[in-house]
């Protein structure tokens, strides 16, 4: 008899076995319905095998669903990803099929001409409407009336006479077939050489990891798009995935791809409407979608002929998924390319230390672009010592930065004020009793958002109107805002420059792709004088008239005990400074800092990335930390503090003894209370060649977790909260 191992969308450690009816044709990746206790559950076939002499009585699969199967290559990747991240395989598999269960796009009702039918009374208005529509076109009633300049009554009369009929038109696919010859880009000599390196890797038809290392403005996008064009010339059926860290970046890249290849690529991220997500999922499965631009979850789409993956801004921490299934999209992209024998391009002006180490040790090919494209030059970076020239009381912009902004505005050029902190103020205190406003059942501070008049927790999403009295002592009008967010900086800029056109670019003010596209357009076309922004604007955007970047609090990212604090600060500030000066306009960046002597600040001032990465790498190597060692975290949480302590004690007793592995904890997490749940952490440190996943499996084997306690495993953690 045939037995199928079926993955179920549940936190189960393995697939369940079911019998396959004798007359069924069933394959790996097929969608089925199986019985599970009294329920019927949708599942995904992981394996099919013949068995003989089994003494187990298996329940049979009840239904095979008539939907596209997940390709075997995609199934193999999902299995690997589940094992790498220690995720229940059923949950990982169904992450990859969510788009399939979105609704189909609705057919659109359109009017079209009925062949051989003419109006009984061919008035001027009727004739104009019919001429506007044409014989083979279709349009909505409103669009036709507006285009022809007639009333809806005219259109309705033609429908009543049977001259026009309503037709159900299926919506067009949201992507097209790319033409590699549509609009070739003129590359510089350095860009052309880099593109040839990528083309050679494509032609090898083997797994090829490449670091595309180019300064901001060097034209990395043109280089990898030229490689895409080369691939499509050689293999018209090939598929390419381009991963971006921010949804806000997708629109600009979508436009560049359409201008280069004459057709829009498929788009995949959380803001894409569900019916379109279904079209994209099915298009990727069928091979009709050749180019896909998306966020990290696009990595799990069912590609049938994946030949190239680009991870743009590969250093960006946004590629790490922290909620639900925990994974790093960059690392999984390299693994998927390896399984598909494909090219993977990791592109960045500030590569992660992990990627740089792989390139230095020869595991990745290293392609460099050392100069900006065309006449553009890198910006000058200067430090503003806030100890010598502090802002005025109650202000946040120092005199040298204000003076530079005055000069920039006088020349008709644009300024960017960068502060990676949303809202108006990060802390709200009571001046009477000292109470700090925090989210209910959480340790996180409430951030004031003055535009909406609310206090918001950026961790849990909780929000409330700003109260008029202190909830602790009852004092009236005693709540004061401490510190600046982008809204507060925009307020100060408006006071200092009342004639300037000022906008704020953050996830609060630009909530979706359409809003991001509009703001970027207005900035590019010169409709904004001063842009106050978080990291949403610090990467990937090209503003030709932006010549001044002012970093309000350059020390912000250095605070706390994060392993990657210095690295992230250096990367983010280089990216922010890199927005200044494109084309023929030189740029400058001014960084306000209380710590100008800090190694990160000195490296930024000198634009000496090599010196910084060398010093940072030496420190990590000494401690055996990534990329010279490995980390993993266990985060245990419960609303029941006693149950949490018991579980942590039991886990501590079970810690396996192994060479070159150290386990720290359990200790309270820095955010020890979130949504009413207490949190504790174990941190595992191991040498680079240790199989951390195997160690964790041995530790957690046979461990029974109480229902009141949750355990989350984070391999290679990026957040230590």
Describe the structure using short key phrases:
721 residues, alpha/beta, GIY-YIG endonuclease, 5 domains, 6-stranded parallel sheet, 30% helix
How would you describe this protein?
- The chain is α/β, with parallel strands linked by helices and 721 residues long.
- The chain has five domains: 2-96, GIY-YIG endonuclease (3-Layer(aba) Sandwich), CATH 3.40.1440.60; 108-169; 189-369, Rossmann fold (3-Layer(aba) Sandwich); 380-421 and 484-617, 3-Layer(aba) Sandwich (Rossmann fold); 629-715, Ribosomal protein S10 (Alpha-Beta Plaits, 2-Layer Sandwich).
- 30% of the residues lie in helices and 24% in strands.
- The protein is built from 19 helices and 32 strands.
- It has a seven-stranded parallel beta sheet with strand order 11-12-10-13-16-9-17, sandwiched between helices.
- Helix 14 (513-524) links the parallel strand 25 and strand 26 (530-533).
- The radius of gyration is 29 Å and the shape is globular.
């Amino acid at each position: 008899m045939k037995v199928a191992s079926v993955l179920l969308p549940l936190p189960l450690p393995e697939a369940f076995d079911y019998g396959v009816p004798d007359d069924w044709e069933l394959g790996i990746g097929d969608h089925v319905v199986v019985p599970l206790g009294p329920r019927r559950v949708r599942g995904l076939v992981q394996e099919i095998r013949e068995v003989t002499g089994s003494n187990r009585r298996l329940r049979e699969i009840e239904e095979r669903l008539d939907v596209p199967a997940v390709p075997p290559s995609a199934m193999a990747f999902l299995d690997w990803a589940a094992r790498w991240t220690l995720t229940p395989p059923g949950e990982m598999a169904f992450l990859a099929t969510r788009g399939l269960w979105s609704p189909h796009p609705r057919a659109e009702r359109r009017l079209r001409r009925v062949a051989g039918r003419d109006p009984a009374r061919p008035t001027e208005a009727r004739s104009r409407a019919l001429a506007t529509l044409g014989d083979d076109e279709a349009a909505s009633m409103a669009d036709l009336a507006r285009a022809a300049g007639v009333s809806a009554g005219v259109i309705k009369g033609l429908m009543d006479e049977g001259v026009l009929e309503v037709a159900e038109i299926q919506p067009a696919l949201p992507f097209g077939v790319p033409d590699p010859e549509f609009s070739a880009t003129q590359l510089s000599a350095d860009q052309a050489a880099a593109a040839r390196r990528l083309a050679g890797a494509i032609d090898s038809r083997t797994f090829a990891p490449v670091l595309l290392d180019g300064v901001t403005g060097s034209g990395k996008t043109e280089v990898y798009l030229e490689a895409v064009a080369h691939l499509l010339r050689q293999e018209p059926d090939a598929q390419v995935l381009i991963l971006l860290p921010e949804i806000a970046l997708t629109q600009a890249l979508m436009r560049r791809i359409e201008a280069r290849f004459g057709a829009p690529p498929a788009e995949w991220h959380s803001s894409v409407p569900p019916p379109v997500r279904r079209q994209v999922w099915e298009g990727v499965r069928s091979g009709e979608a050749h180019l896909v631009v998306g966020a990290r979850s696009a990595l799990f789409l069912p590609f049938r002929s994946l030949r190239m993956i680009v991870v743009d801004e590969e250093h960006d921490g946004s590629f790490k998924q922290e909620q639900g299934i925990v994974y790093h999209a960059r690392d999984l992209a390299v693994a998927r390319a390896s399984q598909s024998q494909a090219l993977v391009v990791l592109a960045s002006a500030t590569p992660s230390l992990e990627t740089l180490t792989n390139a230095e040790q020869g595991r990745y090919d290293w392609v460099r672009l050392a100069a900006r494209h065309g006449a553009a030059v890198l910006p000058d970076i200067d430090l503003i010592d806030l100890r010598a020239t502090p802002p005025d009381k109650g202000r946040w912009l120092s005199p040298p930065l204000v003076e530079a902004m005055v000069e920039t505005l006088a020349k008709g050029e644009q300024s960017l004020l960068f502060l990676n902190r949303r809202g108006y103020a990060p802390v709200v205190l009571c001046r009477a009793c000292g109470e700090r406003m925090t989210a209910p059942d959480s340790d996180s501070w409430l951030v004031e958002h003055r535009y909406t008049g609310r206090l918001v927790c950026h961790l849990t999403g909780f929000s409330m109107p700003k109260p008029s009295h202190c909830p602790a002592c009852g004092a009236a009008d005693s709540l004061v805002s401490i510190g600046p967010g982008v809204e507060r900086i925009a307020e100060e800029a408006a006071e200092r420059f009342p004639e300037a056109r000022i906008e704020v670019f953050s996830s609060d003010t630009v909530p979706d792709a359409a809003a991001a596209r509009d703001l970027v357009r207005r900035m590019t076309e010169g409709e904004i004088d001063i842009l106050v922004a978080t990291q949403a604007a610090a990467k990937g955007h090209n503003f030709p008239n932006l010549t001044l970047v002012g970093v309000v609090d350059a020390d912000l990212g250095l605070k706390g005990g994060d392993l990657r604090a210095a690295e992230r600060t250096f990367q983010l500030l280089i990216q922010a400074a890199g927005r200044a000066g494109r084309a023929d306009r030189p740029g400058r960046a001014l960084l306000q800092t209380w710590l100008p002597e800090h190694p990160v600040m000195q490296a930024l001032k000198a634009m000496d990335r090599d010196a910084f990465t060398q010093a940072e790498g030496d420190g990590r190597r000494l401690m055996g930390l990534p990329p010279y060692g490995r980390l993993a975290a266990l985060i245990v949480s419960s609303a029941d503090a006693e149950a949490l302590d018991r579980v942590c004690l039991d886990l501590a007793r079970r810690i396996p003894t192994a060479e070159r592995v150290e386990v720290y904890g359990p200790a309270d997490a820095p955010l020890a209370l979130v949504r009413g749940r207490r949190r504790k952490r174990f941190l595992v440190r191991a040498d680079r060649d240790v199989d951390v996943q195997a160690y964790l499996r041995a530790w957690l084997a046979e461990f029974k977790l109480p229902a009141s306690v949750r355990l989350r495993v984070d391999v290679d953690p990026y957040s230590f909260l």
